[in-house]
Protein 1
Amino acid sequence: MQGRLLPLYRGMYQAHPAGYWKEEFKIAKKLGLNCIEFIFDHHEAEKNPLLNSAGIKEIKKIVQTTGVEVLSICADYFMEAPIHSDNFAIVDESLNILNRLIQNAPLINVRDIIIPCVDQSRLKSKNDIDNFVNNIKLVIKTAETEGVNICLETDLQPLAFANMLDSIGSKNATVNYDIGNSAATGYDPTEEFKAYGDKITDLHIKDRKLNGGSVPLGTGNANFTKIFDLLLKYEYQGIMIFQAYRDNEGVKIFKDQLSWFYKNFK
């Protein structure tokens, strides 16, 4: 996850590190990582390299130089400007932004654009779900044409999430499965995978306490062994992104958790 190998940007736990984002690709190369999930924030969105041709060229150049790819985008923008908002102006602008991301994604080989419907943008009612489905249908054909997945992260119950995906009705409406967030909600991974395991295209590796925040891998309630058994059962072919716990500096705590992960699951 972008920023996890760098000091905090403006004191924010997760944000696009404007001005020094390229440095992370060099560190990732040294650690043997092969991709970074780009973050697209609401704050200063127009300055993000994902939205302009010069920025796309910069991304392509650093990818070519380091061999570290960008295969996915975590669009935190839509946590601040939800696609299911009752404010039509917010929805119109958000759909415009999403269309631009979809159209630029193939230029850098991005496969998944993750839309988080959690925390302040969680789907709290049937009206929220209906708004989201109806609005995302306005861009899903473009995603299909461009070969990009609209990859959803929600805290809905497994069956409700599966029903929402069915309502969208597109193979390009997929799932971002966040191991830590699932653990925090107390959901049973077996039930989650039964509901939509074949639709998962992006995996966030994280650990959290039940009803609590992020903690270093292996110290929370995530059942990694069970989840990786399920990933094998469902023949998961997507990418794995470390969205693990971080501190102010980033790289040392990342290395410690990467070592823990390799020791237990490589």
Protein 2
Amino acid sequence: MKSRFKDMMNDVVVYGSCCACGSCVLVCPFNQIQYVDNRPKVVKGDIPDFCKISEEVGCDICAQACPGLYPREHHLKEAVFGADRLHEEGFGGYRRILVAKSKDPRILDRCQDGGIVTTLLVGARRLGLIDGAVVSALDGNERCKPVPKVVTSEEEIIDAAGSWYTYVPNDLALADAQKKNLKKIAFVGVPCQVTPLRKLEFVDSGFLKTSEKKKAVLARQLKFLKGFPEIIALNVGLFCSETFTYDGLMVNKIEREMGIPLEDVRKFNIKGNILIDKKDGTRCELKLKEAQQYQRPECLHCADFAAEIADISCGGVGATGWTIVVIRTARGEELFSQIERAGQVDVRSIDEFERSKKIMLQLSRKKKERVPIPPGKDEFFIREPLAK
């Protein structure tokens, strides 16, 4: 039984677990829902869980993309990887795990930790494996509020390096990628943004096909159901414990209480505390516990810390100046190997970063344990994985 628009609006949005990825809005073939105040909202009518197309024509593509509905990321592992996983630990399946750092000084100057995500994108662009990437970037906004963005040049990719720790609906930028007629995209996002694309990749489109439906309607629906995952050449997942509200953390805490104009902030990092690097070269620190009062409550419903169904997952847990790299799929391994052979990265064994691996396991376990089970939805979490 496929999830429906009503399920998405009631069991996710009203329930409070909507992560605000915007994927449902992205894939709606007939513009029945909009992204309003970081939530999907019906365009017409006063009934929030009623979609005319869903009820009268048959659609519900939005619900197939929703990361808060079955299948969740842990149900998708068999479909995504099959026998591709060589190892399995608490942070998911993988083929190789290592620690790396970019050798490009331009990237190191702007990056979060080791600059590996940026290096992957630059390398894939040089190799012709991608013609663009979906990322979050300031886009000229100097007040620490990034937006979803499509980048196509090496310069744009490097300019987008770094994290800002407030939520950005990266999935929405895939519409711009299509408008630019890009055919091979690297998608960079946190786990709840990678999951919708994997769901669309493996969902069976048969539920859309009915004898009564007009061919033009079906063709449009199939385009929106499968068109976006078809242009994804690489999924790069970012480790994520939680993100923060922009108004709460950036405006209220950092700018107003700490007295740091957001225009003066060069970049952020989290290493026990939140590290705020200013453009004048000075650094301020904010205790993570103080920042966590501005955590988005929706993040408590996510069980995936390490982006377990991405091609490659990256993060800087416990490793200053280096990136922990979890290579999960064959295509992820091939890309990293080409970049490694080209001498673009320094690589170290994970054994040299034992503390980082321990933290990664702890944070992965913590996220899985904290997710509340929606009322009456026990089977929602314990169904068998989808077959490949």
